[in-house]
Amino acid sequence: MSFHEMICEAENANEVLFVCSDDSCGRRVVVGKSRPRLTVIDRGDFSARHVGSLGGISIEGVDVS
Ligand SMILES: [Zn+2]
Known about the structure:
Shape: globular
Mean pLDDT: 83
Order of helices and strands: EEEEEEE
Distance between the termini: 17 Å
Radius of gyration: 11 Å
Largest sheet: 5 strands, mixed
Bound molecules: zinc ion
Number of helices: 0
Low-confidence stretches: none
Helix content: under 10%
Structural class: mainly beta
Strand order of the largest sheet: 4-3-2-1-5
Number of strands: 7
């Protein structure tokens, strides 16, 4: 199983947009800040495990859609 790293591309007061750093994947998710909530925008390569974090917001497990 391959690992992809999610990086923060944009954020506002309530949500953070993460995109996969792998160009061939293109996974994008929005993670809520105040409470754990995950919205998948683009599924990308769902066979890979996606991990990432931003300032205490862990999105390990974002492969769960
Ligand atoms: Zn990916």
